[in-house]
Amino acid sequence: MEEVLAHKQGGGGGRSCLLDAQQQGTLWATVASGYFMTAGQIHEWIAERFDVAYAKQSIYGLLRMLGCVTKVPRPRHEKADVQAQIDWKKDGLRDALIDSGMSSGDTFFFSDEARIGLHGSNRRVWGVCSIKVVQIIQIRRQWKYLFAVVNTITGALYWTWIDSMSKKNTVEALSEIRKRTDLQSLVWDGAGSHRSKDVQNFQGIDSIVQPPFSPELNSVERVFEEVRRATDGRVYENIEEKRDATDVFMRGLASDPSRVRSLCGWHWIVKAVRDLPA
């Protein structure tokens, strides 16, 4: 931040910033908090807070100088316990792994389901200035569930498809995954099917439940983000065609463990594994 504030608007010999260093720092912190949605709101806030009159078009130069850009915020459930999430990252995951009997060298997977359907969404594309890009949005109530598990340390990725998140379908998915890898421990959320007796007693798999309302703590969600990035924004003949497109993407991703580790090997997970007892 100090380097940003040391930079004067205009580069060399241009007009100095109308805000002093303290005001710039206050603006920077407020922008960083996600308080503003538009540059117009920032323009009005500066005038009210600092009694400084910026031309509207100059706001963008000020924001560039401060290193500010538009971003899509990361969603957080309104019921999420932020402190529980912090504690989980700090040592909660490690403690949960130890409580389940894991030690150094043991393997575990993060797991979840993603609903893949034909109710599409807009995706960002390249276009040409002054020419509007139209994207057809498919709205059809057909879907299946992509059940996936990922080992964030090795980059191993496995998946199968189920029709619903019922306990019966979840057990079937676990049985299918078990055919391909040694599935001993799973970190996932506390969905009803995950907590059912049939799933909890499935061939000795240990279930480690993450804090509630916290999908952002499950690294397999990064896989699902990439799936949507690769498959959304298109019109499909039927759900089977989209499932096939998803399988093509998943096979390509699974063939590149280093990319999977880059996506899912978050530093606090790696640390939790490194700190397991021998």
What do you see in this structure?
- This protein has 278 residues and is α/β, with parallel strands linked by helices.
- The chain has two domains: 2-65, no CATH class; 82-274, Nucleotidyltransferase, domain 5 (2-Layer Sandwich).
- It contains twelve helices and five strands.
- A five-stranded mixed beta sheet has the order 3-2-1-4-5, with helices on both faces.
- A hairpin with a 6-residue loop joins strand 2 and strand 3.
- Helix 5 (82-99) packs parallel to helix 12 (267-274).
- The longest helix has 18 residues, at 82-99.
- The model is unreliable at 7-13 (pLDDT under 50).
Helicity, as a percent range: 40-55%
Instruction: Give the number of domains.
Output: 2
- Give the amount of beta strand, in percent: 5-15%
Count of alpha/pi helices: 12
CATH hierarchy: architecture of the largest domain: 2-Layer Sandwich
* Overall pLDDT: 91
Determine the CATH topology of the largest domain: Nucleotidyltransferase, domain 5
Biggest beta-sheet profile: 5 strands, mixed
Task: Identify the CATH homologous superfamily of the largest domain.
Answer: Ribonuclease H-like superfamily/Ribonuclease H
Shape estimate: globular
